[in-house]
C-alpha cells in the first residue's frame, strides 16, 4: 500500500505576523545590548552611598543628644534634666521606643507614635527623687529606635542620647587656725578666751549648715560661742577653769560637721585644743615678825580648789591647819607662846603631785618697858614706845 503524504497549509497573513514578531524581538534585544554598552559603570561603594544618602532623611531625627546637669549630693528637689524632640522624616508613619530609662533616670515617655512625616513627639528627662546618686559624676546612655509602618526599621535605626550628672558636695572650710593651746590656773571662775576660728562654705552655689560637737556641754570646761549655724561664722573658743582639773589636761578635739541643705555630711573639720594646767606653786608669808602671845596673820596664795595643809611650827596655836584652797588665797591667824625663829610649812597638792613652801616668823617678847633719852643740842626729849622697836616697849 502506498502512504499518503502529510501536508501543511500556510496562509500569507500568518507568515507575515510571525516574521514581524521575530524582528521586534531581535530589535529589542539589540537595543538593550546597545544601551548597556553605552551606560557607565557604577562602583559598589557608590551604589551603597547612594542608597544610604537616599535613606538618611527617611527616619527619626533628634536635635539634642547630650544633656548635663549638676546637683548637690543627696538633692531631692529640682531634679529636671531637660527634654528632647523626636521628629519623623519618613514618608511612612513611624513608631518609636526608648530603652535605658530605669534605675535613677526617669523618662516621661518610653514609646510613642505613629507619627507622620514632619510630626514630632517630646520626651522629658529627670532624676528620680530617691536616686541618691553617689560619687562625683554619673553617666547614662539611652537609645531611641524607630519602626516604619511597613515593618522596616527607620534610618538611622537608632540614636543614642547621653545624660551626664555632675555631683557636688558642699565643701567645709575651717580655719585659718585649727590648733589652739592655753595654760590656765584650774579652779578660777573667770573663763579664759583661747582663740577664734571661722567656718565657711567653699563650694559656690551650694548651701551649708553645720554643727560643732565636743564643746559647750553642761559643766564642760571647753566653751564654743556658737555650736550650730548656716553659712559663714566665727567661733570663739574659751576655757572655764572652774570645771577644769589638772587631770583633764591634754588635747581635746572638737569636730565641725557640715551638712548641706539636703542633710548630707560635708567634709568635717577638726579643731584641736590643748589646755595645760598652770604649774602648781604657792607664795607664802616669810620673814614675819611677831610678839609673844599676840596674833599674827600668815597668808598663802596658790591654785584654787586644791587641798592644803599648813604647819605653823613650835609653840603655835593652832599648831596646824588644812582644807581646800578655795579661791586660791588662804590665811590664818595664830599666836606663839615662845620666842625665837619659828618655821612654818605650807603644802598644797593636786592630782599631779604637791608643792611645799616654808617661811619664818621671828617671835619676840614685846612686854619689856623702858625709856630712850636723846642727847644733843636740842633739849632733852623723852620718847615712849608702845610697839616693838629693837625689842623694847615703853
What's the arrangement of secondary structure elements?
Elements: H1 12-38, H2 44-56, E1 60-62, E2 66-72, E3 80-88, E4 94-99, E5 105-107, E6 111-115, E7 120-127, E8 137-148, E9 153-168, E10 172-175, E11 179-184, E12 192-201, E13 209-213, E14 222-224, E15 228-230, E16 233-239, E17 250-259, E18 269-277, E19 282-284, E20 288-291, E21 296-302, E22 307-311, E23 316-317, E24 320-324, E25 329-336, E26 340-350, E27 353-364, E28 372-374, E29 381-383
Strand order of the largest sheet: 2-9-8-4-6
The span between the termini is 212 Å
- The CATH topology of the largest domain: Immunoglobulin-like
Structural class: mainly beta
Cα gyration radius (Å): 55 Å
By DSSP, the count of extended strands is 29
- Any low-confidence stretches, pLDDT <50, length ≥5? 1-8, 35-57, 378-394
- Measured as a percent range, the helix fraction is 10-25%
Query: What is the residue-mean pLDDT, rounded to a whole number?
Result: 77
Strand content: over 45%
At CATH's second level, what is the architecture of the largest domain? Sandwich
CATH class of the largest domain: Mainly Beta
Largest sheet: 5 strands, mixed
Count of structural domains: 3
The tally of helices reads: 2
Q: What form results from the Cα inertia axes?
A: rod-shaped
Amino acid at each position: 500500500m502506498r502512504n499518503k503524504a502529510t501536508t501543511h497549509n500556510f496562509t500569507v497573513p500568518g507568515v507575515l505576523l510571525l516574521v514581524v514578531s521575530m524582528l521586534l524581538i531581535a530589535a529589542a534585544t539589540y537595543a538593550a545590548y546597545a544601551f548597556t554598552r553605552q551606560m557607565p559603570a557604577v562602583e559598589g561603594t557608590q551604589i551603597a552611598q547612594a542608597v544610604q544618602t537616599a535613606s538618611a532623611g527617611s527616619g527619626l531625627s533628634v536635635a539634642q543628644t547630650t544633656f548635663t546637669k549638676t546637683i548637690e549630693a543627696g538633692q531631692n528637689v529640682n531634679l529636671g534634666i531637660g527634654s528632647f524632640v523626636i521628629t519623623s522624616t519618613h514618608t511612612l508613619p513611624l513608631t518609636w521606643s526608648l530603652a535605658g530609662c530605669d534605675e535613677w533616670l526617669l523618662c516621661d515617655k518610653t514609646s510613642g507614635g505613629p507619627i507622620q512625616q514632619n510630626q514630632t513627639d517630646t520626651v522629658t528627662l529627670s532624676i528620680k527623687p530617691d536616686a541618691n546618686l553617689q560619687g562625683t559624676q554619673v553617666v547614662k546612655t539611652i537609645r531611641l529606635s524607630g519602626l516604619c509602618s511597613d515593618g522596616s526599621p527607620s534610618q538611622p535605626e537608632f540614636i543614642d542620647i547621653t545624660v551626664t550628672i555632675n555631683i557636688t558636695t558642699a565643701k567645709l572650710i575651717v580655719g585659718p587656725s585649727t590648733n589652739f593651746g592655753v595654760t590656765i590656773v584650774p579652779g578660777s571662775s573667770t573663763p579664759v578666751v583661747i582663740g577664734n576660728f571661722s567656718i565657711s562654705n567653699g563650694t559656690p552655689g551650694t548651701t551649708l549648715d553645720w554643727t560643732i560637737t565636743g564643746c559647750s556641754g553642761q559643766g564642760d570646761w571647753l566653751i564654743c560661742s556658737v555650736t550650730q549655724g548656716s553659712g559663714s561664722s566665727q567661733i570663739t573658743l574659751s576655757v572655764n577653769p572652774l570645771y577644769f582639773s589638772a587631770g583633764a589636761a591634754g588635747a581635746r578635739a572638737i569636730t565641725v560637721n557640715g551638712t548641706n541643705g539636703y542633710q548630707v555630711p560635708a567634709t568635717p573639720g577638726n579643731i584641736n585644743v590643748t589646755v595645760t594646767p598652770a604649774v602648781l606653786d604657792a607664795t607664802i608669808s616669810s620673814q614675819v615678825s611677831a610678839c609673844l602671845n599676840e596674833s599674827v596673820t600668815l597668808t598663802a596664795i596658790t591654785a584654787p580648789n586644791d587641798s592644803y595643809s599648813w604647819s605653823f611650827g613650835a609653840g603655835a596655836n593652832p599648831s596646824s591647819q588644812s582644807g581646800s584652797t578655795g579661791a586660791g588665797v588662804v590665811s590664818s591667824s595664830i599666836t606663839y607662846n615662845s620666842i625665837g625663829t619659828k618655821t612654818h610649812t605650807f603644802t598644797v597638792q593636786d592630782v599631779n603631785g604637791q608643792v611645799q613652801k616654808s617661811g619664818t616668823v621671828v617671835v619676840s617678847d614685846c612686854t619689856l618697858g623702858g625709856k630712850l633719852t636723846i642727847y644733843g643740842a636740842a633739849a632733852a626729849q623723852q620718847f615712849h614706845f608702845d610697839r616693838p622697836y629693837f625689842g623694847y616697849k615703853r
